[in-house]
Amino acid sequence: MSQYYDLGDQTLWNPSNGASRLFMSQVMVCQAAVGLPSGIGPMESDECQIDPIAFAVFVDALLAWHGRTRHAIMATLSEGFVATVLALAEKANIEVNWQAAERAESHCLKTASDPHAKEWAAALQQKSRELVRHMSS
Questions:
Q1: Measured torsion, CA atoms of residues 4, 66, 75, 106, in degrees rounded to the nearest 10
Q2: What is the pLDDT of residues 58-76, one digit of tens each?
């Protein structure tokens, strides 16, 4: 069994029920964290619609939130979800505001003790591109 994440008539992602349940749980948590609706509608009859305008706003806010996160465990826990959301945005042809990530990244360079901190945005972009290939349409 699987579920469908659609933008109009286009299916962006068709994950298994288990992956979809986990993803939707993370959507709820991250909506609360950024204080915005995700634009991902409710799952009804194994289908949900994505509102491209609300989703674009959520994606940018989520990316900025993730970039500001200084807690190593929170950053690690959220990274896979953020990459998945970025992959959905790419499949939906939504332009992501990477400038917010770059601003957070340049702040991170001044405060992080991790020598690889400056590379997080590029790594996140790469991971999201890999996930696009795994999302069947």
A1: 140
A2: 999 999 898 888 788 888 8
